[in-house]
Specification:
Elements: H1 3-21, H2 28-36, E1 40-42, E2 46-48, H3 52-65, H4 86-98, H5 104-113, H6 124-133, E3 158-171, E4 174-185, E5 191-197, H7 202-216, E6 221-224, H8 233-242, E7 245-248, H9 258-271, H10 283-296, H11 310-316, H12 327-333, E8 336-341, E9 347-350, E10 353-356, E11 365-370, E12 378-382, E13 385-392, H13 395-400, E14 409-410, E15 417-418
Parallel strand pairs: 3-6, 6-7
Antiparallel strand pairs: 1-2, 3-4, 4-5, 8-11, 9-10, 10-13, 11-12, 12-13, 14-15
Helix pairs in contact: 1-3, 1-8, 5-6
Protein name: Integrase catalytic domain-containing protein
Pfam family, one: Mu-transpos_C
InterPro entries: Homeodomain-like_sf (IPR009057), Integrase_cat-core (IPR001584), RNaseH-like_sf (IPR012337), RNaseH_sf (IPR036397), Transposase-like_Mu_C (IPR015378)
């Protein structure tokens, strides 16, 4: 199991306990019963069911030790096979074809009840994976979930986020498209963070979110659609590390994010008409004009849905703002994470540059993290602990550095160096 697998599993576990951590369910007992009754498609493991005891243990681990405590430990029986023997697979598929009308759960229980298998032989996940592989699952029911309008009462309970197409800039004689990345507080409609970018990339989203957290504190939940940047491993990990529940809408359901969509409509109708040609010659100028418009216009005009100005509403609940005790907590959570293999000369290639690592890492794949704003600051982590800082390779310094094994040898005849 790779470190990436462990993080994905930890993110899944965090998603299940997040409503308990953020206290966004009316009854913890009812929520635990509901989750325990469901089956879950778990990264790496496949289909699983979890009881209340397991969920409460994850809750305890996160409370005491944070996100990394949710990562799975290595199995003591690693390397031994848990697969069913070929004869057992053949029997199970035969019985399934004769009982295709049963749900997978009921079929698995029937196999044990009738004595065809023991509970240790065929867990629900084993049966599910086998039936899925052979396309013998029963079709799932049509989703008829409720989707009514909602609005939270308290500020920073939930932030909605999305990206909107912005105006074109004229940069060095070329047209460049812009993208407006924004975060809105669900209760007050205050824009907690927003900025025009030249791309719709994960790094741009993280930059705006980081700024919003430093300015407005931590929301309990972050509500986004299923766009690629909103489902990235980096965003999920950053939110889980900071204790923010990342909630994604169902695919192709833009109406579920009505507040942020309404804000974008306001920007198009009230801000864009004010822009001049000079405003569209520089990205920094565009963002300065936008921040001034937010402060002068949007935040201090009465919002029809709440009958109050967004900033007035937000500041009235300022006692609920939870600022981070140390900004370095946010810096650490937002480090970009990648994996690189250390070359035989103890170097790593990153961003078209060569970086020095310790010889102890030669030939190993290491966990690399670096700040989005300063990609030249590269750190190596092991078990989520920073253990090494990489520096850029400077060839001229290395040429005169003392070495244990010097690559240049001198002949005993005349002192002529041989490489």
């Amino acid at each position: 199991m790779t470190e990436k697998d462990k993080e994905l599993i930890a993110l899944f576990r965090y998603g299940l306990i997040a409503p308990l951590l953020t206290d966004t369910v009316s009854s913890h007992t009812a929520y635990l019963d509901e989750i325990s009754a469901k089956t879950h498609d778990v990264p790496h493991y496949g289909i699983r069911t979890y009881n209340r005891k397991t969920l409460l243990e994850w809750h305890r681990l996160y409370r005491r030790h944070g996100f990394d405590a949710l990562k799975p430990k290595v199995r003591t029986d690693k390397g031994s096979s848990r697969a069913l023997p070929a004869e057992s697979v053949k029997l199970l598929l035969k019985l399934r074809n004769e009982n295709i009308h049963l749900s997978v759960k009921l079929f698995q229980e029937w196999l044990i009840y009738e004595g065809h298998f023991t509970s240790s032989d065929c867990s629900y996940s084993t049966v599910y994976r086998l039936l899925k592989k052979h396309q013998l699952l029963k079709p799932s029911a049509i989703d008829t979930s409720d989707r009514r309008r909602f609005a939270h009462i308290d500020i920073n309970t939930l932030w909605q986020t999305d990206v909107s197409h912005g105006p074109y800039l004229s940069l060095n004689g070329k047209k460049r498209k812009t993208y407006l990345i924004a975060f809105i507080d669900d209760a007050s409609r205050r824009i907690t963070g927003a900025q025009f970018m030249l791309a719709e990339k994960n790094e741009d989203l993280l930059h705006v979110l980081k700024s919003a957290l430093l300015t407005c504190g931590k929301p309990t939940m972050l509500y986004a659609d299923n766009g690629k940047i909103f489902r990235s491993h980096q965003l999920n990990t950053s939110c889980a590390t900071l204790g923010i529940a990342l909630v994604n809408t169902k695919p192709y359901d833009p109406k579920s994010k009505g507040k942020i969509e309404r804000f974008f409509k306001t920007v198009r109708s009230r801000f864009y008409p004010l822009l001049t040609d000079a405003d569209l010659m520089d990205l920094d100028v565009l963002n300065q004009r936008f921040e001034a418009w937010l402060a002068r216009d949007y935040h201090h005009k009465v919002h029809s849905s709440i009958n109050e100005a967004p900033m007035v509403f937000y500041m009235r609940g300022s006692d609920r703002i939870k600022h981070f005790s140390d900004p370095r907590i946010i810096d650490e959570a937002f480090l970009i994470r990648v994996t690189r293999k250390v070359k035989s000369d103890a170097t790593i290639s990153m961003h078209n540059a060569l970086l020095e690592a310790s010889p102890m890492f030669i030939g190993k794949s290491v966990d690399i993290r670096y700040p989005n704003e300063s990609p030249d600051k590269i750190y190596i982590y092991e078990n989520s602990v920073r253990i090494y800082t990489c520096n850029k390779v400077i060839m001229k310094d290395n040429a005169v550095a003392k070495r244990n094994n010097n690559p240049i040898s001198y002949s005993s005849l005349g002192g002529v160096p041989h490489v």
